[in-house]
From TrEMBL:
GO MF assignments: lipid binding
UniProt topology in membrane: Multi-pass membrane protein
Superkingdom per UniProt: Eukaryota
Disulfide bridge map: 136-171, 137-155
Database matches in CDD domains: CD81_like_LEL
Residues annotated as transmembrane: 36-62, 68-92, 183-207
UniProt family annotation: Belongs to the tetraspanin (TM4SF) family.
Name of the protein in question: Tetraspanin
Keyword set includes Membrane: yes
Keywords for the protein's UniProt record, in alphabetical order: Adaptive immunity, Cell membrane, Disulfide bond, Immunity, Lipid-binding, Membrane, Transmembrane, Transmembrane helix
Location(s), subcellular: Basolateral cell membrane; Membrane
GO BP of this protein: adaptive immune response; regulation of cell population proliferation
Record keyword Cell membrane present: yes
Length: 217
């Protein structure tokens, strides 16, 4: 059940409309950075393997098989080690993920400002996708925000800015919020899995030792 829950959360994060709209974008020959998906794929793999390993442990307990319970324990140790490694990788790269996406947005924004209507450059399309998906407009620079606001082909949020300038969000801020929120969910899921795994390892060893001792008599 825990494996199924983790798999469900991972698939939801993988197919979330906001992240897929942004991370599938392409600027010329350059693809949007998709480092974020590495963590998601690890979570999907862990969830799927946990479901299989959980069945193995359940069947081993019913059959009172020391071999199956030992295999269950070994698989859990390997999964736990992989999860710790993935957690360390995620912690190290959590700021870099948002930074890479912001750099990709800035490049598209600069191309959109310089592009002519007939150049065939897709910078405008990329920027508009960011603006519509994240409900924002412009990079971190105030000058560039104002510039983009007065370009109707890049941003349709002029009226919102004039009504509530203090509540208006630039895209750098929205990108940070998007990925910090998603990584927060991944972190919670990883901690829950780790706690469950620790209990599973303890209980499987206790059961295995109990079966071994009972077989003596």
């Amino acid at each position: 059940l825990a494996g199924g829950i983790i798999l469900g959360v991972a698939l939801w994060l993988r197919h979330d409309s906001q992240t897929t709209n942004i991370l599938y974008l392409q600027l010329g020959d350059k693809q949007a950075p998709n480092t974020f998906y590495v963590g998601i794929y690890i979570l999907i793999a862990v969830g799927a393997v946990m479901m299989f390993v959980g069945f193995l442990g359940c069947y081993g307990a019913i059959q009172e098989s020391q071999c199956l319970l030992g295999t269950f324990f070994t698989c859990l140790v390997i999964l736990f080690a992989c999860e710790v490694a993935a957690g360390i990788w995620g912690f190290v790269n959590k700021d870099q993920i948002a930074k890479d996406v912001k750099q990709f947005y800035d490049q598209a924004f600069q191309q959109a400002l310089m592009a002519e209507a007939d150049t065939g450059n897709n910078g405008k399309a990329v920027v508009k996708t960011f603006h519509e998906t994240l409900d924002c407009c412009g990079p971190d620079s105030a000058t560039e925000v104002i510039t983009s606001l007065w370009r109707d082909d890049l941003c349709s949020k002029k009226d919102s800015f004039l009504k509530n300038p203090l509540e208006f969000s630039n895209c750098h801020k929205k990108i940070d919020e998007l990925f910090s929120g998603k990584l927060y969910l991944i972190g919670i899921a990883a901690i829950v899995v780790a706690v469950i795994m620790i209990f599973e390892m303890i209980l499987s060893m206790v059961l295995c030792c109990g079966i071994r001792n009972s077989s003596v008599y």
